[in-house]
Design goal:
- The chain is of the alpha/beta class and 623 residues long.
- Strand 20 (349-355), helix 12 (361-372) and strand 21 form a beta-alpha-beta unit.
- Helix 8 (266-274) runs parallel beside helix 14, helix 16 packs across helix 20 and helix 17 runs parallel beside helix 20.
- The structure holds 2-deoxy-2-amino glucitol-6-phosphate.
- 2-deoxy-2-amino glucitol-6-phosphate binds next to helix 10.
- The site of 2-deoxy-2-amino glucitol-6-phosphate has 15 residues, from helix 10.
């Protein structure tokens, strides 16, 4: 949820930290701070608001002496969980004597009790945060043990919850000590310099060689070396990995917003996600990295799919395609609900976790619950070096590249693509009758990127519609069958970036209540595509036409997504966005793009903070 950066080496430390914080800003951006030690001076600064506030404050102090000539330090950008986003509550947090400086990602479950005990022992608290107890515990144990790394290990024994943190200290100098417990953390390796980062992009300009820390590992970083231990103090062998060198993807290019850039990247993302997974000669699907054997998948009797937000909507699409093609019963769960409902799963259940980041706390906790119940875990994620992937039995990567806008776009269409391919793969393994028909699907899947490009080419029509709808009171999104998850996603995207009220329903439900909200100031966005080759699609299409009539007869405005060549929908809808022809189960992958554009343009017209919407963060690493 928040971002951590650290540096030790010969570069001027503050510019390195500020640069890293700017790259981390999409993980949390309500306040920021840093603490550095250069020779005998300590420089410590925090501000509410975005990183540029911190930068301005630092520049206004003109600490040229401290800023230049090496040194070491830590920085943090925060998304508030405990206490308001104020200067006091911003990280780093200190002990009673300003000896220790701590930055923390995660959420402490037992901080109230710890705070009470520490206060009773004379420690003076200055903030409302959970993190401050870490600083005071470190103070207590440093006094007893003498070495910072030992104090960190001892402190960790008192903590429950999620506590990835880094600390520097005046007393035990020339080192940064960091621990990972929950949210991710990695050490970046340079020439006689080391970096610390919660997320790779923060250090991408300086190094691509990293040691991703495992849960329960402690790193002791000095200018000359880095060593890892477990919580038992025993050395751990570092595993060195390379960050994907997509430094270019971390820049906005010519686009005004990352969200728009990422919408435009979807043809490539879907192409990359399909690459090498479709075998033309045999007409089969293959997943090289899956790591769950065909024999194991053949025995699967039930599938659970779990995710949050956009990934949950992908999961629901997965239910429609997996049941239609692989004929395996599928249950879909919000990750935050799954682990509290005593789910009935076992060794013949495949649990599919969907997460763009692979670091969403609720999703990770649900994955652990499923694993505890002997279910095989298959992770669908966009980040190979993520915790979810490390903890799962099998993995399918979505290959969308770094997604920086808080609103997920290209990761979503890639998730849908993976789920479609997986449905074909399981149909093939479980020998479903449908399998005879697979080549038609494979061919159409490979056409998706060019159809997404066509949709990008039609964006001006979506912009015109957005201009006409900008002052509407609210939006209702309707869909049926595999298009219903798209209605949910369309509404989520609109809320997220434009702050407009939006709801989604399975279209058959509107006469059971939602029709009451229809009036001329309410826009209804309907998924009304069809596929002549699919009888079920044609039944649902007819039903959708009736729903449009129901809305129109109450004076509602209708925006319809319809298939190229459709003559019925434009006669009754106020606005029609045409989608290139494809198979019914593939159409949602195309429908996503104009829905995203509609949200984007509405948000832009309304002057919203598109890439970093208010109250949101890209990765929700607290459960
Ligand atoms: C997407 O637009 C949202 N920002 C959010 O719902 C997101 O999909 C959710 O937090 C899950 O994230 P994940 O896919 O990284 O697990």
């Amino acid at each position: 949820m928040s971002g951590i950066i650290g540096y030790i080496g010969d570069r001027p430390v503050i510019p390195v930290l500020i640069d890293g914080l700017k790259r981390l800003e999409y993980h949390g951006y309500d306040s920021a701070g840093l603490a550095v030690i250069v020779r005998d001076s300590v420089f410590y600064q925090k501000t509410p608001g975005r990183i540029h506030n911190l930068e301005e404050r630092i520049n206004s102090h003109n600490h040229a002496g401290e800023i230049h000539g090496g040194g070491y330090g830590i920085g943090h950008t925060r998304w508030a969980t405990h206490g308001k986003p104020t200067e006091e509550n911003a990280h780093p947090h200190c002990d009673c004597t300003n000896n220790l400086f701590v930055v923390h990602n995660g959420l402490l479950e037992n901080f109230r009790k710890l705070k009470k005990n520490l206060s009773a022992a004379g420690h003076v608290f200055r903030t409302e945060t959970d993190t401050e107890v870490i600083a005071h515990l470190l103070e207590k144990y440093l006094a007893q043990l003498g070495a910072l790394e030992q104090a960190v290990i001892r402190t960790a024994q008192d903590l429950t919850g999620q506590f990835t943190f880094a600390v520097i200290c005046r007393q035990d100098r020339e080192k940064i000590v960091a621990i990972r417990s929950g949210p991710p953390l990695m050490v970046g390796l340079g020439e006689k310099e080391y970096f610390l980062a919660s997320h790779g992009p923060a250090i991408l300009p300086f190094t691509t060689t990293v040691i991703p820390m495992a849960d329960g590992e402690v790193a002791i970083i000095s200018k000359d070396s880095v060593s890892l231990t477990g919580l038992d103090g025993q050395p751990r062998a570092p595993k060195i990995e390379q960050l994907s060198p997509d430094g270019t993807a971390s820049e906005r290019g010519g686009f005004r917003h990352y969200m728009l850039k990422e919408i435009f990247e979807q043809p490539q993302a879907v192409r990359d996600t399909t690459l090498g997974r479709v075998e033309h000669a045999s007409g089969r699907v293959a997943f090289e990295e899956l790591e769950i054997s065909s024999a194991e998948l053949k025995c699967i009797k039930k599938i659970n799919i779990i995710g949050c937000g956009t990934s949950l909507h992908a999961a629901l699409y997965g239910k429609y395609v997996l049941e239609a093609l692989a004929r395996i019963p599928v249950e879909v769960d919000f990750a935050s609900e799954f682990r509290y409902r005593n789910p009935i799963i076992g060794s013949d259940t495949l649990t599919i976790m969907i997460s763009q980041s692979g670091e969403t706390a609720d999703t990770l906790l649900a994955a652990r619950e499923a694993k505890k119940r002997n279910s095989k875990l298959l992770a669908i994620s966009n980040v190979l070096a993520s915790t979810l992937i490390r903890e799962s039995h099998g993995v399918i990567c979505t290959r969308s590249g770094l997604e920086r806008a808080v609103a997920s776009t290209k990761a979503f269409t890639s998730q849908l693509t993976v789920l479609m391919l997986l449905s074909l793969y399981l149909a093939q393994i479980q020998d479903r009758i449908f399998w005879d028909n697979s080549s038609a699907y494979l061919e159409k899947i490979e056409d998706l990127p060019s159809k997404l490009e066509q949709l990008i080419g039609r964006r001006a029509e979506v912009l015109t519609i957005a201009q006409e709808l900008a002052d509407f009171r609210g939006f209702l999104f309707l869909g049926r069958g595999p298009h219903f998850p798209l209605a949910l996603e369309g509404a989520l995207k609109l809320k997220e970036v434009s702050y407009l009220h939006a709801e989604a329903y399975a279209a058959g439900e509107i006469k059971h209540g939602p029709l009451a909200i229809i009036d001329p100031s309410m826009a209804t966005v309907v998924m009304a595509t069809h596929d002549l080759s699919d009888s079920n699609s044609m039944i649902l299409y007819d039903k959708m036409l009736s729903s449009i009539h129901e809305v129109k007869s109450r004076d509602g405005q209708v925006v319809a997504l319809a298939t190229d060549g459709d003559r019925e929908v434009p006669k009754i809808a106020d606005h029609t966005i045409f989608i290139p022809k494809t198979l019914n189960l593939l159409a949602p992958i195309l429908e996503a793009l104009p829905l995203q554009l509609l949200s984007y343009y509405l948000a832009d017209i309304r002057g919203c903070s598109i890439d970093q919407p208010r109250n949101l963060a890209k990765n929700v690493t607290t459960g």
